[in-house]
Write a structure and sequence with these properties.
273 residues, alpha/beta, Rossmann fold, four-stranded antiparallel beta sheet, 8 helices, 31% helix, disordered N terminus, binds adenosine-5'-diphosphate, binds magnesium ion
Length: 273
C-alpha cells in the first residue's frame, strides 16, 4: 500500500502530505535487458534495444515518447500480451518471460487490468455485463459477479447506469465502464494505453481523478502511456522512450491533483454531452 512519507510545503504556504512510494515496497515490474525484434520478411525491426525498468507497488508511472519509440511494445510485454525476444521480466515476483500463451492469459486475468484509448466495450451489452466479463472468464459465480460489477460501477461514479449500453453513455462514462471492468478481478497493476486520447479536457481530468484515487486509496500500481505532458503531470514518475530505449526516467515534483482541479471546473450535465 502507498503510504505518506514526506510533508511538503506548497506555493500557497499550506502544509500538505505528499504521497511518495515506499522505498521498501516490493517490485511489481522488473524488466531487465529487454529486446524485442519483429521479423517482417527479410527485414528485422528492433522495437526494443535493451530496456531495464523497475516499478514498485503503489507507483503511478506515465510512459511518454514519440511515435514508434517502443511504448506499446513495452506495454504489451508488461501486460503479458507478448514476450520479449531477449531479456527477463518478473511480474509481482514471478518470472513471466518464458510462459506459454495460455499461462500468460491466466496471469492477465488474475493480476492485470487494461484500459485502452477506444474503450473496447462490447456494444450490444449493458455496462453491468461489460464489467462482469473478466469475472465470467475467471469462473466467478453469477451472484458474486453481479455484486462486484455493481460495486465497481459505483466506485467509478456510474451508479444507476448499470443497464445502459455503451451508445447510451458519453465517452467519459464509457471509459469509466472500462476502468470498472479493469478493476473487478482486483488487479495488482492497471495498464492504460492513451486512456484520455479520445476524451475532451474536462472528461480527461475526471478519468485522471479516478486513476489517482485508485492509486492513492487502494494502492493499485498504474502504468499509463500518454503523449500529452499535461496528462503525464498527474503521475508521480515519468519514463520517456526514444528509439527502443529509455531516454529519461524522473520523479514528478508536485503531481497535478485531479480532485482539486475538478472542484474549480464548472459542472456539466453528462446526459447532454
Ligand atoms: N507487430 C509489429 N510488427 C512489426 N513491427 C512492429 C510491430 N509492432 C511495432 N512495430 C515497430 O516497432 C517499433 C516500436 O513500435 P511501438 O512499440 O508501437 O511504438 P509506440 O507505441 O511508441 O508508437 C516501430 O518501429 C514499429 O513500427
Ligand atoms: Mg503505441
Amino acid at each position: 500500500m502507498q503510504t505518506a512519507f514526506e510533508v511538503g510545503v506548497f506555493d500557497n504556504g499550506a502544509h500538505r502530505v505528499v504521497l511518495t512510494h515506499d522505498p521498501e515496497a516490493p517490485e511489481v515490474i522488473r524488466l531487465e535487458g529487454i529486446h524485442k525484434t519483429y521479423s517482417m520478411g527479410d527485414v528485422e525491426v528492433h522495437a526494443l534495444r535493451g530496456v531495464t525498468l523497475n516499478i514498485k507497488e503503489g507507483e503511478f508511472v506515465a510512459i511518454m515518447g514519440t511515435s514508434g519509440s517502443g511504448k506499446s511494445t513495452t506495454m504489451n510485454i508488461i501486460g503479458c500480451l507478448d514476450s520479449p525476444t531477449r531479456g527477463s521480466y518478473a511480474l509481482d515476483g514471478e518470472d513471466v518471460s518464458t510462459l506459454s500463451k495460455d499461462e500468460r492469459a491466466d496471469i492477465r486475468l488474475r493480476k492485470l487490468g487494461f484500459v485502452f484509448q477506444g474503450f473496447n466495450l462490447l456494444s450490444r451489452t449493458s455496462a453491468l455485463e461489460n464489467v462482469e466479463l473478466p469475472m465470467l472468464y475467471a469462473g466467478i459465480e453469477p451472484a458474486e459477479r453481479h455484486r462486484r460489477a455493481t460495486e465497481a460501477l459505483h466506485a467509478v461514479g456510474l451508479a444507476g447506469r448499470e443497464q445502459n449500453h455503451p451508445n447510451q453513455l458519453s465517452g467519459g462514462q464509457q471509459q469509466r465502464v472500462a476502468i470498472a471492468r479493469a478493476l473487478v478481478n482486483d488487479p495488482k497493476l492497471i495498464l492504460a494505453d492513451e486512456p484520455t486520447g479520445a476524451l475532451d479536457s474536462r472528461t480527461s481530468v475526471e478519468v485522471m481523478d479516478i486513476f489517482q484515487r485508485l492509486n492513492r486509496e487502494r494502492g493499485i500500481t498504474l502504468v499509463l502511456v500518454t503523449h500529452e505532458p499535461d496528462i503525464a503531470a498527474y503521475a508521480d514518475r515519468v519514463v520517456v522512450f526514444r528509439d527502443g530505449r529509455i531516454q529519461k526516467d524522473y520523479r514528478v515534483n508536485a503531481p497535478r491533483d485531479a480532485a482539486e482541479e475538478l472542484k474549480n471546473l464548472p459542472a456539466v450535465d453528462e446526459d447532454e454531452e
